[in-house]
Amino acid sequence: MRKSPILAVRGLRASVAETGVEILRGVDLEIRAGEIHAIMGPNGSGKSTLAKVIAGHPGYEADGGHVRLRGEDLLGLEPDERAQAGVFMAFQYPVEIPGVSIANFLRSALQARLEDGEELDLFDFQDLLSGCMELLGMDPSFAQRAVNDGLSGGEKKRNEILQMAVLKPALAVMDETDSGLDIDALKVVAAGVNALREENPEMSVLLITHYQRILDHIQPDMVHVMVNGRIVESGGPEVALELEAQGYEEYKRTHAA
Amino acid sequence: MSGGIAVGGGARVAEVGEVAAVGRGGEPSWLRARRDDAWELYEATPFPSTRSEEWRYTDIERLLPLGDLERSAIGPNWSGELPERLRRVLASDGEGAGRVVEMDGRVVSARLDPGVAAAGVALSSLADAACSADPVVRELLGTQAVPASDGKFPALNAALWSDGVFVHVPPGVKVELPIRLSRWVSRPEAPTFTRVLIVAEERSNIAFEDEILSPDFESGTLVSTAVEIFARRGARVRYVSLQRMGRRGCHLANQRTVAERDSSVDTLNVALGGSVDRVDLNARLVGPGASSEMLGLYFGEDGQHFDFNTSQDHMAPHAHSDLLYKGALDGRARGIFRGIIRVHEGAQRTDAYQTNRNLLLSDHAVATSLPNLEIEADDVRCSHGATVGQLDSEAIFYLMSRGLERGQAERLVVRGFLGEVLSRLGPGVVADKVMRTIEAKLVR
């Protein structure tokens, strides 16, 4: 029996808010519970824009179509409401927040999910946080560091995975998490994602990447190729391997704007 | 209005002196003479105008309706209960080495921990100390650190000060807990002039927390404070000024710290309340190996106007000073920072830094930052930097994407921004109080 989709994207069109330049030209995508989907594409194909539009980045305007999470339309929601609904985006460039510790930040994020008047139990939070850090093989002192401020590229990406572990989203959108990482750092991050998936097999993942190599470490159920703001091919893991062999040139020729 | 505060002429000064000396057997003649000289200087000094570089962004004549201030500089002795807000602050401040309460410019109580007193530390009303002919007071009150010749307001303060605090720490005595001064100002349209004199003898330690509180006022109310701090060889002094006045309160502070060989004088100026706060702070490093950390934190909203005029005078070699002033400005608030590092001739191996950062939370808030260097030695390490930025929309989106509402996200960023200053200060009553006040401002 096929499960109903966690994420359903239909005919999604989106443009840059400031300039009105259209980036997404009708994207269709469905992800079911527990599935991992990879979106690959050349630079400028719109794959990162798709991630940002799902998360509600104010720099983009959705012009048509819909994005539903478990049936609920996300496009009218603020970014925080989308997070509450179960969306998590791991940023390609995690933002530095000086003076705010990772632990404090995560506590605020969990507190924000509670009803007014409800208080997050600090002991429960500590247990959750240290459990997640243990699962990801992180040193407990890491949580006392400022959010991304002074962290290396690899540490920033691990911080994203830690947040994902604590916030337990229904859908994790990973926006080029592999970019800028050497192979060792990439393996650490991929192992983190796999560990989370083992813990929480229902979590769906949308993995956005330029390169095939991360897919050696995180096995996708489906691979989509995006060119010029549309998904032009979808298939199993073999699609990524073909791409690796051929490159994007053929796709770019056939699907020119 | 060019005459400044409408407090009459010489006769008035005499009267002020008399009022200050009531019950103390009259003021000594040296003090009378200093007041007279100060008044003459006050009258001879032009009112600061925006044509002068140092007052360019603070039109004090416009911001502070001094002409409206009541003629009497000295209020009646405080009688009756302390105000509720002050009592709450006193109750929550916790343990200290000493506690002074000043009401409308008069010390109503000064208590020192018996153990600290037994070690020889003196804590008293400044007027009492002056009238009892304390030789240290006579030598240092308004003579070296903040003399009347410093300017219009130092002169006015020197002429009219009613009371304040004198702290004297004998050689080698280390006081662990801070001495706290809580000032309360209650009279609308009345000026208050007070002073602090701290003398830390060789190898002694002292921390002093100076808080100014008031209710909201309907019209401008002036508090002028002169703070003189001396750290003798190897002494350590920490001074915190925490301004949490109510609406329409105006604070003019003249602070000077003098750090001798191998001593340190660290200061923190916090401006959160009031309508106008102007702080002139001069850190003098007069002995080799002296050090000063100078921290500042301000959070303005509505039409609050904060102006910090700082200088770091390196007059001896191998001294170190490090200034960090950070402010957030919301509404139509205005923040001005003007700072200068002066490395005097012969002050080789000077290590001096100056940083001012501003975060604008509204399109109508304005920050002006003017860092400056003046170096007359050739072997020095100096740097200065200034930034004025707005809330980073990427940072807000990042935090919101984790489930924080926009307001919460903005608060977290501001807290983190200002928190850097408090983390340099270290945990304690001041950090808690400042954070609580900032939180209260942020949720408004």
CATH class value of chain A: Alpha Beta
Average pLDDT figure of chain A: 93
* Percent range of helical residues of chain B: 10-25%
Total domain count of chain B: 2
User: Strand portion of chain A, in percent?
Assistant: 25-35%
Number of helices of chain B: 11
Per CATH, the superfamily of chain A is P-loop containing nucleotide triphosphate hydrolases
What would you report as the Rg of chain A, rounded to the nearest angstrom?
18 Å
Uncertain regions of chain A: pLDDT < 50 for 5+ in a row?
none
| Count of DSSP H/I helices of chain A | 8
Overview of this structure, please?
The complex is a heterodimer of chains A (257) and B (444). By secondary structure, chain A is an alpha/beta fold. Chain A is 35% helix and 29% strand. Chain A has one domain (5-254): 3-Layer(aba) Sandwich (Rossmann fold), CATH 3.40.50.300. In chain A, the strands form 3 sheets. A 6-stranded mixed sheet of chain A has the order 6-9-10-3-11-12, sandwiched between helices. The N and C termini of chain A lie far apart (39 Å). Chain B is an alpha/beta fold. Chain B is built from 11 helices and 19 strands. In chain B, the strands form 2 sheets. Chain B has a 10-stranded mixed sheet with strand order 2-1-5-7-9-11-13-15-17-19. The longest helix of chain B has 20 residues, at 406-425. Chain B starts with 9 loop residues before the first helix and ends with a helix. The A-B interface holds A 55-58, 78-80, 82-84, 87-89, 91, 94-100, 105-106, 108-110, 112-113, 146, 163, 167 and B 392-395, 397-406, 408-409, 412-413, 415-420, 423.
